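User: structure tokens for Cysteine-rich repeat secretory protein 38-like, please.
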Amino acid sequence: MSSSNFASFLCLLAFSLLVHTENFTANGPYESNLNKLAGYLYYQAPSTGFGQGSIGQNPDQAYGLALCRGKTKELLTQLANKVQATPKLYETGEMELGESTKLYGLVQCTRDLSSAVCKKCLDGIIGELPSCCDGKEGGRVVSGSCNFRYEIYPFVNA
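Assistant: Done. Predicted tokens:
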């Protein structure tokens, strides 16, 4: 699968290539499994915002994980809207991505900002998602006055 195919697949954030620690043969069984898996995840992920799977048998088995950026932006935007009502200008939350997977997020501003300026700051860095976090299972952007983080695992203690 070429890098241009990865770039055009907007929902794909990560492929695990842990099975093959050495180079694999072009047009071989591993590449074939990887291409089949990409096609599977391309159709599976948009309906729920998340997909995972594996195809093939060892030693040519390919594992994959897909997370649609739309769900990430949706969660972070919800948190940015909620943070305006909190005096600490800090908010965390989660969103279901599938039956057993969640997306976790955090937004925060420095408390010298007004709630309106905090929201504007967060909206600006949330707009950076495509340039900062493509190809990642999680991500964060930190500016001088605000930041966000998202992951597919819990990272904040309640």
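User: Anything notable?

Assistant: Residues 129 and 154 are 20 Å apart (CA to CA).
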